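in:
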């Protein structure tokens, strides 16, 4: 969509929230992420072990940079009140629940030590890590928020679309559970609320800079799921991932 400056857009917006301006200006990629066939296949438990392993091996490297970015949010937030939720999420979710999930899931999928520690990175993983590094080293709170918010809000988006019975395989089921439910929704609401609090006060140049990061992150979420889908078609897998392609 062509860019309408926030100050102009908000005049006739039904919901004038800054986060809504960012999301709408990231279409059609946003919708493509939250309705992605790979995400839908997770919700129905239909991703093959080889595909799930390739995705989670790459995602473990994503989550490493994401965790560092959470640290930058603690460092760059503008008040003690704002720092606390990042610190809490960093300690409780990112470094405990999520970490143990990755260890259990990757073990169940037969990933090796080197798959976890130093896998060959897909191009999209390299690109996503460098976007997060750029946001982290900027120590620019609104820019950091934009990247964190895309990662969490899009995941809430696909996971909350899950209908039907929860998959039996814990690898699928827990990956959905980690990204929906009241606690995760409250965390996403907090991130959006921070953007809504801070965004309108920025000057137009800075608002467009935040939008640029938000859009690039949304595009990378889409490419990340595309990467996950690019392996061998289900049913023809030799049991090995196609990461060499
Ligand atoms: C490509 C990609 N984008 C977003 C997420 C979502 N996410 C990243 S870190 C984190 C917090 C720790 O639980 C969550 C929910 C992901 N995993 N992979």
């Amino acid at each position: 969509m062509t860019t309408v400056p926030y100050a102009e857009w908000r005049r006739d917006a039904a919901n004038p929230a800054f986060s809504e301006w960012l999301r709408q200006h990231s279409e059609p990629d946003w919708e493509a992420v939250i309705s992605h066939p790979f995400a839908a296949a997770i919700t129905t438990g239909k991703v093959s072990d080889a595909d799930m392993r390739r995705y989670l091996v790459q995602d473990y490297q994503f989550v490493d940079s994401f965790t560092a970015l959470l640290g930058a949010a603690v460092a760059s937030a503008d008040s003690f009140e704002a720092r606390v939720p990042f610190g809490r999420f960093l300690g409780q979710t990112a470094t405990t629940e999520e970490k143990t999930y990755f260890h259990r899931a990757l073990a169940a999928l037969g990933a090796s030590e080197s798959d976890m520690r130093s896998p060959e990175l897909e191009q999209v993983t390299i690109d996503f890590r460098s976007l997060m590094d750029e946001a982290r080293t900027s120590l620019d709170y609104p820019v950091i928020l934009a990247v964190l918010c895309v990662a969490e809000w899009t995941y809430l988006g696909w996971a909350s679309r899950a209908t039907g019975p929860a998959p039996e395989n814990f690898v699928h089921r827990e990956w959905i559970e980690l990204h929906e439910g009241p606690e995760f929704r409250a965390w996403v609401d907090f991130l959006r609320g921070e953007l809504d609090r801070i965004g309108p006060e920025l000057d137009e140049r800075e608002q467009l800079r935040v939008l640029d990061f938000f859009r690039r992150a949304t595009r990378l979420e889409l490419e990340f799921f595309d990467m996950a889908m690019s392996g061998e078609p289900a049913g023809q897998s030799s049991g090995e991932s196609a990461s060499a392609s």
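note: The chain has twelve helices and no strands.
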